[in-house]
Each structure stands twice: as structure tokens, then as C-alpha cells.
């Protein structure tokens, strides 16, 4: 079956989908995107993703392409037409089509919206074979990392460097302070020497991860303390455990960083418990939506 994409008001075979060469997303990276995990026919944390989409669009002075209810309908329809129940849905909004000029178009043009979906393997049932390694790299991105911009070249280069070294993620840090920001495409956490669960507080320096926020809400319900407090590379090296979170990573233990084992090099007890808590969040939500 041919994959179906939504492109500016039309559902079309993905192999035939196209955008105008003067789309500002193509020429300037002038746009915002979101990626949502689809589990058992339900979008996980859909409201969090749509909230973040709206915040990011507002930050770059770009209106929503559709009403929220209409956009939600499009997302579900793309999944339905592709018969995908386990997958990742990608949506991108750009400032639309206009003659190439750096300032916003003199005459307002409609935002451009593209939505696609692809199948992925189901949520892992065990953490045993879910972990991966990471490397560290200086954070070369722009100063508004809280906006989910489609300008991802530094992230791409960091992820490629990780891949070439057999790692699943690049952990980024500020060159002057050696303070960790986040992963190239994930939120990053540690369990420090004292056993505290830590991740950097929200600011312009990091993206407000939806999986990060959902996990924090689950931890609060469980009465599990966590600390939104920055840490340095030196603290990272001494950490008992480390893990990443995202719509594609869920809760993924990091077993080695720059070739050195984290803890004993296996998924730690805290990360294992958080993996189980988040799996319950994902699977429980799907049951509630049934």
C-alpha cells in the first residue's frame, strides 16, 4: 500500500507529495516541527505535543495552520489512511510560499502544513536490550533551543558523529562552563553520586521535551523526587546512571559515555524503574483511549 501524506489541505500518495521550491521551510528553515509516538492506535501525549507546537509557532510569530481540533483530526486521518497503529507521526509548519527574501512576506501567505507517518517497532517490553552508548560534544546550536525549529544542522552533525562512533546519542555541553545541556535529539538525565535523579531545568538552553514532561508528571504521582538542576561533565563522569528520554527513545539507559562505562555498564535500578513507570504511562493511556 502506498504511504499517504497530508500536504496543504490534500491527502496524496507520499511518492507524489511535493512543496513549492519557494516554500520558506525549504529555503530558510523558517518553520516548526513535531514528532508524536503512535502506540496501539493512540497518540502518546498528544496534548503536550500540540501545546509545544503552539508555543513554538507563537515564538516565531507564525499562526497555527488549522484550528487545534482540525489539526488533531488530520493527524488521526493520516494514521488511519496509512493503517499505522505503531509508529511516528511527523508534522511540519512553515511560513509558506513567497518570493525569496529574508524578512517575512510583505503580504501574509497561508502557513504550509505537511504531515507524514511511518511504522516503527512496538514499545520495548524489556529494558535489557534497550540501552545504548553516547558521546559528548560541544553544543553549537543557536540560543533559542526551546523552539522546535526545523533548523537542525548542528543536531544532524552531532548525531552523525555519534553514529560513526557506534553511539545512539551525542550529549551536548556548553564549551565555556562544561555544563551539560541535553542530547542532540533527546532530553538527558543522570542519577548522580548521591542517588538524585537530575536533569537540566527548562530555559532557552534546552527543548521542553514532551516525554520529559510526561515522565516528570508520572514521578510526581509516584512520589519519586527529582531535581531540575544542571550538572557538569565532571559530575556526569561520576554519575551512577544516565538515560535519555524522547518520543522515540522513551526511557533509554545510556551504558557508556565516550567509551567509559556509566556505573557498572548495565541498566541501573533507578532507570529500570522509570522505564517501567513510563511503559505503564504509554500502555495505560492506550487502554483509557480504547
TrEMBL record:
A matching Pfam family: Aminotran_4
Keywords (A to Z) from UniProt: Amino-acid biosynthesis, Aminotransferase, Branched-chain amino acid biosynthesis, Transferase
Pathway: Amino-acid biosynthesis; L-leucine biosynthesis; L-leucine from 3-methyl-2-oxobutanoate: step 4/4; Amino-acid biosynthesis; L-isoleucine biosynthesis; L-isoleucine from 2-oxobutanoate: step 4/4; Amino-acid biosynthesis; L-valine biosynthesis; L-valine from pyruvate: step 4/4
InterPro entries documented for this protein: Aminotrans_IV, Aminotransferase-like, BCAT-like_C, BCAT-like_N, Class-IV_PLP-Dep_Aminotrnsfr
Enzyme Commission number(s) of this protein: 2.6.1.42
Entry keyword annotation includes Phosphoprotein: no
Top-level EC class as recorded in UniProt: transferase
GO molecular function: D-alanine-2-oxoglutarate aminotransferase activity
Superkingdom of this protein's organism: Bacteria
Catalysed reactions, as listed in the record: L-leucine + 2-oxoglutarate = 4-methyl-2-oxopentanoate + L-glutamate; L-isoleucine + 2-oxoglutarate = (S)-3-methyl-2-oxopentanoate + L-glutamate; L-valine + 2-oxoglutarate = 3-methyl-2-oxobutanoate + L-glutamate
UniProt-listed PANTHER family: AMINO-ACID AMINOTRANSFERASE, AMINODEOXYCHORISMATE LYASE
Function: Acts on leucine, isoleucine and valine.
Family: Belongs to the class-IV pyridoxal-phosphate-dependent aminotransferase family.
Protein name per UniProt: Probable branched-chain-amino-acid aminotransferase
Amino acid at each position: 500500500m502506498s504511504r499517504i501524506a497530508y500536504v496543504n489541505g490534500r491527502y496524496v500518495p507520499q511518492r507524489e507529495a511535493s512543496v513549492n521550491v519557494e516554500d520558506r521551510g525549504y529555503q530558510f528553515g523558517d518553520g516548526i516541527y513535531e514528532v508524536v509516538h503512535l502506540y496501539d492506535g493512540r497518540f502518546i501525549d498528544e496534548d503536550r505535543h500540540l501545546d509545544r507546537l503552539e508555543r513554538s509557532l507563537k515564538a516565531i510569530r507564525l499562526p497555527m495552520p488549522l484550528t487545534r481540533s482540525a489539526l488533531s483530526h488530520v493527524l488521526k486521518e493520516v494514521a488511519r489512511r496509512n493503517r499505522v497503529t505503531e509508529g511516528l507521526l511527523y508534522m511540519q509548519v512553515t511560513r509558506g510560499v513567497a518570493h525569496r527574501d529574508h524578512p517575512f512576506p510583505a503580504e501574509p501567505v497561508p502557513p504550509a502544513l505537511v504531515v507524514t507517518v511511518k511504522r516503527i517497532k512496538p514499545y520495548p517490553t524489556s529494558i535489557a536490550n534497550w540501552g545504548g552508548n553516547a558521546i559528548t560534544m560541544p553544543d553549537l546550536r543557536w540560543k533559542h533551543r526551546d523552539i522546535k525549529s526545523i533548523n537542525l544542522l548542528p543536531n544532524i552533525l552531532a548525531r552523525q558523529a555519534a553514529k560513526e562512533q557506534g553511539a545512539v546519542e551525542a550529549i551536548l555541553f556548553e564549551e565555556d562552563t562544561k555544563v551539560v545541556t541535553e542530547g542532540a535529539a533527546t532530553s538527558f538525565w543522570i542519577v548522580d553520586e548521591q542517588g538524585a535523579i537530575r536533569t537540566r531545568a527548562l530555559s532557552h538552553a534546552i527543548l521542553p521535551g514532551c516525554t520529559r514532561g510526561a515522565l516528570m508528571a508520572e514521578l510526581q504521582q509516584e512520589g519519586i523526587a527529582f531535581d531540575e538542576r544542571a550538572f557538569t561533565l565532571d559530575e556526569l563522569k561520576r554519575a551512577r546512571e544516565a538515560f535519555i528520554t524522547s518520543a522515540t527513545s522513551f526511557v533509554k539507559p545510556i551504558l557508556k559515555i565516550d567509551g567509559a562505562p556509566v556505573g557498572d555498564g548495565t541498566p541501573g535500578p533507578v532507570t529500570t524503574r522509570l522505564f517501567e513507570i513510563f511503559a505503564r504511562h504509554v500502555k495505560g493511556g492506550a487502554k483509557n483511549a480504547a
